[in-house]
Amino acid sequence: MQVIELRIPEDRIGVLIGKEGEIKKAIEEKTGCKIKVRSKAGLVTIEGEDAIGFLKARDVINAVAHGFSPEVAMKLLEEFNVLEIIDLTDYVPNNALQRVKGRIIGKEGKVRKTIEEMLNVNISIYDKTVAIIGDPEAANAAREAVLMLVEGAQHSTVQRFLERKRRDLKLRSYDWHDIL
Fold this sequence. Notes:
- By secondary structure, the chain is α+β, with helices and mostly antiparallel strands.
- It has helices at 10-17, 22-31, 51-65, 70-73, 97-105, 110-119, 136-150, 155-179; strands at residues 2-7, 34-38, 43-48, 82-87, 122-126, 129-134.
- Helix 6 packs parallel to helix 8 (155-179).
């Protein structure tokens, strides 16, 4: 039996539980894990026998804790999706966080939306982190794009990088379809 305790932000606990506990119940049913939420402490305990279900429950709860809606977080229950979390404080000082988050989001959310659409990923920018959900290669490419923005790359440079990555990912998916 695996057991883990996660701390999640107070404002995300209600989202995790859902109306009448429906989200928490859905995660428990789909992963075979038991989830206990201590709202006042902001602690979530996950218990599970099945290692894969346990890890998926942990990832879904982490995704909700990092700003994703439960519907998007549930994509992690699909076979090939992963959760990537970038802690921006590892790359920039606190006084530059707002500016860097603004670069990642872009005017009216355009940059974030471009990354999401070109790589077929979901991105959440919450508190001091950027979280990404998608298949491993696309999530890794999105991580690279975000880090390019954090390091000050021009948006046009990131756009070209995304176009190249999208082309590479499409070519790889054709290769697999030919084999299968």
